[in-house]
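Worked example 2:
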Amino acid sequence: YPGGLTAFGERLAFSARDGNESGLWITDGYETAKLKGNAGNQMVMLDGGLLFRASDPEHGEEPWWTDGETTRRIKDLRPGVLGSSPFWFTRIGDEAYFTAFTGTGSFPLWRTDGTESGTVEVSGWTGPGSIYPMVAAGQRLYFFVENNIPGKRLWIAENGQARLVREIGGSGTAGTFGFPADPFVRACGELLFFVADDGVHGDEIWRSDGTSDGTVMVGDIRPGTMGSAPRELTAVGGMVYFQANDGISGEELWVTDGTPAGTRLVTDLVPGPGGSAPGQMVLAGDRLFFSAMTEEAGREPHLLEVGEILAFHAWSEAVGLTGMDAAPGAAPHGDGVANLLKYAFGIDGALPYSRTAAGEPGHLPHFAVEEDGQGRILRVAYVRRQGSALVYTVKRSADLQPGSFQAMTGNESVEPLAGGWERVVRSERVEGGRCFGVVEIRLP
């Protein structure tokens, strides 16, 4: 009964039974050795070794560490033969978080760097209740607290301090995740996407940036208390793909960037309310593979090309275009980004904005590739103030490589708008399969 299979460098670590005892084993595929007896299947890589749970007759179950040569107990968290039963090892950077019982009636949250002195209790949460699941997102640890009370309680731990982010829902709404929770919880960068019911909209997809105001429902995909029942959450670059039912198209493939405007149906494989029920999503290279059901083929594997999404995500991170909507309380509001949006495109960072074609102030630039019978034309539309001192330059790139964005030199049309604004459309014929556009705004 092998369990907890974990990559250990170029070897595999796992728990297995040889007779009446479950132990920690290691193998390179040819030679297999037992490192420690009485070991469980909870383990994670840490500091060039493996953090795992094991017991001995004097101390019970406690956290242990091994590099394959040296195996040692990290710390005796609960002195005596009962042990602390550490669980949910989750690595973040050079540390790992876990829960352990110390005899106080709850399972406090701990963190460790693999040493005895570096194994300490995380302050801010001591119960009541238990933690499940724990999800690493960048340098943040998100976790939910279960205490048999309706509603979901989202917490975050950073730098050894835990705090409540937000409580969602109340009477009559589901308060716990099933096991496993993976289909309903997913990290994407430092954001957490999860499924929750606030008691009004039913089960819908939510996201959190670790703040109460930044923990919001992504979109009301299926209005009403039934909800769209999202599941199979899968991160692809800065996007999350998932299965959802909007009540019209049935269970189909959806995608979100964490905003209502960026949440949409990807494809309706089975038109009508039947749905294709996509699941088992796996990102492999530039393709998202998933299982889906159609009337013609039954349930078969499908794929979605996502290379452009991954390329854009890598480029946007490299140039620092990270974060969510501009808002007065959001970083980097203090460096003038919100003001730039206001004076360059008429967008108030405190209000929702539209991603439709740029036809009036308050819209972001709009990019479209059109066919005219002779090839493909990239059209970029944006608004600017008439007589603005800001310098607008429309650029395009075929591959997002450094230095690849070149100024567009095609036709430009200008249409006056109300309130001292104007709509600008730049058009240029393009070659190749990929095309990326930006509108660069500079001070004079």
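The CA atoms of residues 249 and 271 lie 6 Å apart. DSSP finds two helices and 34 strands in the chain.
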